[in-house]
Amino acid sequence: MIIATVSVVVVINRRMASISSAGVVEVNNSMENQQIAASVDSSVIYMEDMTIAGITPSLLEEWIEDELLAELAAELGYENVRKSKLLQDRARQVYLRDELLAYTYARIPFPDNTEVFQYMSSDSLAFMVERHYYQIIVANKSMADSIHQKLLWGENFQITAERLSIGQKAGIGGDLGFLTAGELIAYGVPVEQSVIEGLGDVISTNYGWHIFLVDEIRQLEDTSRVVRSLADDIYRQRLATARDSLLVMASAEKDIFLDSTLVYDTWQYSDQSTDGSEAE
After folding, report:
1. Alpha helices in 44-140 (DSSP H)
2. 263 or 135: which carries more pLDDT confidence?
């Protein structure tokens, strides 16, 4: 898929030509001799390019076929030059972004057990006790509010979960088992709605609208499970913080614009132009 995309992006109005089966050839350019791995007319993959781009020999025949089809498409007038340029820019953008993040992330340490234990000890209610949680999750707030009111009136939580919840545990009454509050916090549940006894309030996360019930609290038993989970959460937070810092650095003194009307709207450009001539 990557090879095919690159082919379409880089090829603009080239003549289709057949490939000799003689194998790898040597070409002389203004800088040095470079060994060709595959080519279609002036579109070339050099041996050293395969290492740089992670292209394996098994993909070279696919690259040739994709290049031939891309060139034919351009000859037949299917190319929008402006779209090709946008795709080129996007490919470069993603490549450079990933290079920067990979370099940065490689230098961020993964927390050790001592650090995790210290973090857990700083909030014993969230990490040193386990609560037996039940959950009802639905898709909209009005339904969650209605269910919550009925639960306050005495409706059975587990039966309601079986009937109405869309969560994976709905079939067993929404039973999540024993968890620490910190494990729920990692999924976006607010701290005050994780450290609860009895019925919680209606809350929202990226997964939907939740109602939690806690019917039992005990001292933490499976410490290793929580340490592993929390270590992963701390590390992900470090990565997110590092990325945010890079964005602050990158955006300094930059002129940035985003049409706010497009952020939450489903939008499609209505211009019917397809030749891309304005970008030539």
Report:
1. 47-53, 60-75, 81-105, 113-121, 124-127
2. 135
